[in-house]
Design a protein that fits this description.
The chain has 239 residues and is an alpha+beta fold. It folds into 2 domains: 1-85; 112-239, 2-Layer Sandwich (Heat Shock Protein 90). Helices cover 51% and strands 21% of the residues. The protein has 7 helices and 8 strands. It has helices spanning 3-39, 44-59, 63-83, 91-109, 135-146, 177-180, 193-206; strands spanning 89-90, 113-119, 127-129, 153-162, 165-172, 213-219, 225-235, 237-238. The strands form 2 sheets. It has a 5-stranded mixed beta sheet. β6 and β7 form a beta hairpin. α1 runs parallel beside α3 and α2 (44-59) runs antiparallel to α3 (63-83). The radius of gyration is 21 Å and the shape is globular.
Length: 239
Amino acid sequence: MGILTVLLIIALLYFQRRQLEQRQQVERLVGQLHTKALQAQMNPHFIFNALNAIQQFILESDQETAMVYLSRFARLIRMIFEYSKRISINLEEETEFLELYLKLEKLRFGDKIQVHFEVADELDDDIKLPPLLVQPIIENSFKHGLLHKGAGGQLWVTFSDQGEYMQVVVEDNGIGREAAKAYSQWRENHNSSGVDTTYERLQRFNEDNHPPFEVTDLTDENNEPSGTRTTLRIRKHQG
C-alpha cells in the first residue's frame, strides 16, 4: 500500500470522525433546546417544526445549515425567556425578535415563501408594547394560510404610525380561513388560544373600548379567497 493511499485513508477516517462528532454535537444541542423550548412554553407546533427542520438538515449532512438554525433557535429561546418575565418591551426589541423568528421560518420554508418586513422610520424605537405580542398572529399565517399553498407564498408584516396608535398589519396570500378549515388543525375543535390571548392582552394594554385587532378575509377579482389580513392597533406608550 503506497504512502498516498495511506494518507487518503487517514484523511477519510478523520473526515468521517469529524462528521460524526459534529452530528453528535448537533443532536445534543437539539435535545437541550427542546427542553428549554418547552420550559419557555413556546407553541408546540413551532417547536416540532423547528426541530424537525434541524434534524432534516442533519440527515442531509448539511451540518452548516443545521448549526445556523440551531444558533438562531437558541437565541430566540433566550429572548423568549427574557421577554416573558417583563411587563413590556420596546419596539426595537419586538422587531428584533420578529425578524429572528421570520428568519427561522424562512429557512424552513425556503423559496416557497417570500417575507416582507417593514417598520416605518417615524416610529420611535422606545415605544412600549406587551412582549411577544405579534408572533402568534404571524405564526397563524404560516400555519393555516401559507403551509398548504405550495409555491408562491407571500407574507407582509408592516409597522406604521397612526397618531395615537401604532398599526401592525400581518397579511398573507394563503388559502384563506375557510379553505384552511378542511385541514385537521382547523376542525371544529380547533384551539385558537394564542390569538385569543393576544386579543385580551392588547385590549388591556390599549385601555379603550375599540377592538384591538380585526381579521379580514381577502378575495381576488373573481371573489375567490386570496389570503388573510390581520390589523392590530397598539396604543403608544413611551418608556
